[in-house]
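SAMPLE LOG
Freezer: B-3
Tube label: C17
Construct: single chain, 300 aa
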Amino acid sequence: MHSLAWTDLQHVLAVAEHGSLAAAARALGVNHTTVLRRVGAFEKSLGVKLFARSPGGYALTAAGEEIAASARAMQDTVHAIERKVAGRDLRLTGTVRVTTTDTLSVALLPAALTGFAAAHPGIQLEVTTTTAMANLTKRDADVAVRATSSPPENLVGRRVGAIAVAPYAAPAYLARTPARRPLEQHAWLVPDDSLASTSIARWFARTIAVTPVLRADTLTALAYAAASGLGVAALPCYLGDTDPRLRRVRGPIAETATELWVLTHEDLRSTARVRALTDHLVQALGAHRDLLEGRRGRAT
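STRUCTURE (predicted):
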């Protein structure tokens, strides 16, 4: 009877989920040759092929599907145990990993985290920025600070306030292209397809029938491009109104409004360090509600 190693199953699952050795290696934080070796040794020990290899990637065989399904169930159990254990931790020490967006990480979060770090020197903070909601069920992060109108059902948290969005441009751009021009007559800087689900991208696709001058995969990149005078970008007011290089072209766009939430997994809500951070963030970010909701704008 074979004794299956959990680490081998993790490598198999990573390849199954990502479809290639390189992507699985990035997810696991190892070299792709390590993934190839571990998967090959696992297949040899079982005497079955788990993957069909092709130029397009790795696809599960029938045997691989069965093993992957069982491995996912094991993984869910392991993550549940980790969350339950973490949820009983009453110490104000350890690490808290925060997932947020690129704009929040540069505009509002640093000051909030500075205050928290001063009050809780025993807690180490980690921040990851991504446009996608990190998987708090799998402990990819402990706390999410996110713009969303509908938080995932498996997360709990508190609403900080509304987030307003307005179009911004640099004074140099507005000197040659007056703000009062119809929106479709401006040079637009817009999110690319990776941000297609955002309220800004949806509004632009519905409303502005022009080809943009620039597309980018982060709003921070769009803000920098706008500040250089390249064109107009729709940005969260907490970003645009705090950048001295930018001016509003119009008031907030009602259709793009969303909400700011501080979220965690239900199993982690009683963890002392997580609760301390979420409480602090709700208060610290809530102090900027006027900025979040677009009531501190500068005129063009």
